[in-house]
Design goal:
The protein is an alpha/beta fold. It has two domains: 14-145, translation initiation factor eif-2b, domain 1 (Four Helix Bundle (Hemerythrin (Met), subunit A)), CATH 1.20.120.420; 146-350, Rossmann fold (3-Layer(aba) Sandwich), CATH 3.40.50.10470. Helices cover 39% and strands 17% of the residues. It is built from eleven helices and 16 strands. The relative contact order is 0.12. Mean pLDDT is 95; it is low at 1-9.
Length: 351
Amino acid sequence: MPRDEGMNHSIRTIYWQDGAVVMIDQRALPLVERYVTCTDYREVISAIKDLTIRGAPAIGVAAAMGIALGVRRLPDASPAAIRDAFNEICKQFAAARPTARNLFWAIERMKRCFDETARSLRPIREALIAEAIRIGEEDIAINRRLGQNGRALIPDGARILTHCNAGALATAGYGTALGVIRAAREEGKKLHVYVDETRPVLQGARLTAWELMREAIPCTLIADNMAGFLMQRGEVDLVIVGADRIAANGDTANKIGTYSLAILARAHGIPFYVAAPLSTIDPALADGGLIPIEERDPAELTHCGGVRTAPEGISVWNPAFDVTPHGLIAAIVTEAGVIRPPFAEGIRKCW
């Protein structure tokens, strides 16, 4: 398996190799560990849509590399034709998943790179590939800084609840919420992680548990509907989650079920933390009510492991994310530092 030195053996989720985009197939985990090689940008788009790769930062890296891959394969043409083709590729990536802010952030960055490059195809190709690789490398470095900034929030002996997957698999490597946990452990702190299974796609059970067990971090898997009882028993000291988009006031969109955890944490006097890079923050959105929420295939809810578990013909509502109001969040951990309420002011200072 590809690894990065100095990353505590964290997985490298996605990388550029020999003119192709290589990513771990997260649909197959934890039973099979395999990698997918994309040689066409449309394959990267499909991988984003079908959750071969998921997690907002990882989706951003995938989009950047996919755009570079698409331009790499363009035939020689006029500057106007190259621009039209580039814009069309960007448009297709933008339609892949609507909620993850990092996807659009990466597209915007690739567009700036395109605009700053000479109009002939060869330098454009080279510049976009270099920029995409840089975005992936920066993501790992950002996550490590984020982890260092957030580790003080985790006391020695902490019992931590997390939701979905915000680890190396959700990023280019190391992770956001799990990055904070990793950093605390690297500091020598003892801790135990409770892993929400995260219905309906089970990112917690399949991915977070797999990552934690690979690194021998003590963990316990629970069903989503057990979290409240666990808190009532006094078994949770803090909750930390990732994010897919954060509005200018701190309202946070994350995997469906996050809002429920935040309510439960507030009711039990437990701090609720969000960990995300600045690229997840969308300062153009005043509040969480403006965050687009993706609705996914009903089969994710009616089937489990390909086996139907609900009656034929049942009506299904399957939003992939919910929005946690900023008033329920104790702090947002970023690579620039820990932002505390009032979040609007702290977020403005970061920009």
